[in-house]
Amino acid sequence: MLPAQRQEMILRRIEAEGSVSNAELADAFNVTHETIRKDLEALAEAKRVIRIHGGATRASDSRHDLPLPARQSVNQFEKSIVAQAAAALVGTNDTIFMDASSTVLAMCDNLPSVPLTVLTNAHHVIVALGGRPGYDLICTGGNYEERSRSYVGAVAEDSLKRYMIKWLFVGVDGLHHEIGASEVNPGQAVLKERLIPRAEQICVVCDSSKLEKKSPFIFAQPRQLNVLVTDDRAAPGLLEPYRQQGIRVITAPLDRV
Q1: How many independent structural domains does the chain possess?
Q2: Stated pTM of the model
């Protein structure tokens, strides 16, 4: 196979999957890692992909989140139904963490009217839940990101060291049964990664369009996840690999009135 032919096939794979690793491509095309490195360098030089550590991602992928209003407008109905199902997991006196994802933000309207401690790095979660009777709201503070309207960095990470979390609710830019949960925003990814050891239950909350996708920054391996809440548009075969790894899968019906 000529390098140009292989590079076009690599490009199609990246467009389909979001990102790929050097090792995956070397295995798929039965060539050396050095050959793949040269292919990706050629594609990056042509501005057709973006090189990341150990692989490449789509040239169109942003290294930062889309602005929150833009994220909220994507698959809005699916997110609302998934958020309802995730909120039903929360119990009286639970301590939960809600990240800055648009799907987790949609949970705010569905959380139970019981005493809760809510930790978050998301400004809009505090605004949405402010004034709720029985809610103890704790915001991390830290470096404010306007696009995500949330806080990241060392201050945000350090502020949560003393808490044990019952439910860690996280959104993703990609979830893959082999790679795990990933983000386009490195600050958000690091914060989530640091919280995982402090959580009893790690719950990924995402609509089915995020499944089997990969983004540049991995924050959780599949074995670290406990629950996946998604919508029932996901094909059963797509969800089975998660169940086989011991992840509880909840599919929210999109025909819910």
Answers
A1: 2
A2: 0.74
For position 19, which CATH number holds? 1.10.10.10
Residues 169 and 224 placed together within one structural domain of the fold: yes
Tens digit of each residue's pLDDT (9 = 90 or more) over 98-122:
999 989 999 999 999 999 999 999 9
Length of the chain: 257
Edge-to-edge strands, sheet with 49-52: 19-21, 55-58, 49-52
Mark whether 124 and 161 lie in a shared domain.
yes
pLDDT tens digits, 132-178: 999 999 999 999 988 788 999 999 999 998 999 999 999 999 999 99
Q: What is the DSSP string of the chain?
A: --HHHHHHHHHHHHHHHSEEEHHHHHHHHT--HHHHHHHHHHHHHTTSEEEETTEEEETT--SSPPPHHHHHHTTHHHHHHHHHHHHTT--TT-EEEE-S-HHHHGGGGGS-SS-EEEEESBHHHHHHHTT-TTEEEEE---EEETTTTEEESHHHHHTTTT--EEEEEE--SEEETTTEEEES-HHHHHHHHHHGGGEEEEEEE--GGGBT---SEEEE-GGG--EEEEETTS-HHHHHHHHHTT-EEEEE-TT--
Structural domain of residue 37, as residue ranges?
A: 3-58
